[in-house]
Design a protein that fits this description.
126 residues, alpha/beta, Macrophage Migration Inhibitory Factor, four-stranded mixed β-sheet, 34% helix, elongated, 4-oxalocrotonate tautomerase, isomerase
């Protein structure tokens, strides 16, 4: 039951956003073994001004985060997902080799999050 948020420094067409959402859902299913039917992807394109060590960043960069239930993935799963999403987004968004893009895997305790009014701990018992 993951939710992903992709925030970018560049504008992205709606059709490209849909392609990216589908690809991230597939990679999440393959690498983290998450159910595609309950995976949500929120894309926030062209969001704010981005600054690095040399000031304003004018090239494409992004920040990707995913919320998952703690203890449901191995370190190997997570490392695979981090690499696969980087490789995909790097190509899809035409990210320069020297750009800095962050990806976070946020592990939530099963009692502290869920969807449609049921937390993950309860959902896993049914």
């Amino acid at each position: 039951m993951p939710i992903l948020t992709l925030t970018t420094s560049i504008a992205i067409t709606e059709s490209k956003q849909e392609k990216i959402a589908k690809s991230l859902t597939t990679l999440t299913s393959q690498c983290l073994h998450k159910n595609k039917d309950v995976t949500m992807v929120n894309i926030v394109p062209d969001h704010g001004l981005w600054f690095g060590a040399n000031g304003l960043v004018t090239d494409a960069v992004y920040q990707l985060s995913i919320f998952i239930t703690a203890g449901t993935n191995t370190e190997k799963d997570i490392v695979s997902w981090l690499d696969e999403t980087w490789q995909y987004l790097r190509k899809e968004l035409d990210i320069a080799d020297d750009s800095v893009c962050y990806t976070s895997v946020l592990n939530n305790d099963g009692t502290n999050w869920g969807f449609n009014g049921i937390n993950q701990s309860t959902r896993n018992k049914t």
